[in-house]
Amino acid sequence: MKNVLKIFRYLLVAIICAICLIPFYILLILSLNTPQRIFYQGNMFVPDFYFRNYVDAWNKSHIDIAILNSAVITIVALAIILIFGTMAAYTIARFKYKFNQFVFWLFLSCMMIPGIINTVPLYSLMIKLNAINTLWGMGVVCATIALPSAVFIFTGFIKSLPREIEEAAIIDGCSWFTAFWKITFPLLKPSVAAVIILNGFGIWNNYAQAVFFLQDSKKHNIPQALSVYFQQFAGAHWNLMAATAVIAVIPVIIAFLLFQKSLMRGLTDGALKG
Description:
Number of domains: 2
CATH topology of the largest domain: MetI-like fold
Largest sheet: none
Order of helices and strands: HHHHHHHHHHHH
Number of strands: 0
Radius of gyration: 23 Å
CATH class of the largest domain: Mainly Alpha
CATH superfamily of the largest domain: MetI-like
Strand content: under 5%
Oligomer: single chain
């Protein structure tokens, strides 16, 4: 019976992996086919290895500008999230005031609100700040939407850290603020990695807010650039469209491979001990 359950478990994992990976494999096959070939012609699982598609896609789609824009937006948003998210979480985790607990539950409530609902008030605010069609404005918008989940993760992780290490620093003359930045913050690396991955992917691939706040084509991020590029071809050049999509996915894959161990540690430590 145990062997049957073990086989079933491995089979289930294999099916789930196949469901997740097959679309990416098809995308890769399409990106390596010649322009004249239709996907279902010949052996559909063996590409033509036509790497010229990537050169043409890079030159025609202007994906390089979109990658740079997405990188700036993501860096600005993550910087805001890490600075203000860690400080808010530290205050909530270490100072047991009713107001702090109220703020924590307020953050949890905000996590249940779809980001698109916040778009209208944020758009009105960004107009007054002259932040429409600016990368920093888009970064602020993304940070505002992602901040509640970051505070939730940071709070759980900080609660798992022994309070004595900070109290020892305070006895030696440090303030709570200094103890946080010099002692507690360096210990938050696993949770920081988790927040960077979880929120960074969403910010990098943000489209719902980008269509409102980045209307200038020179400020488009990757999802917008892909959308415009796909609309231009309207299915006429599947190979170039697939190659552009693969180029856009590569930075995300690299980031995940670099931070995956820290991601799992940051999530499990905060969940088990918080």
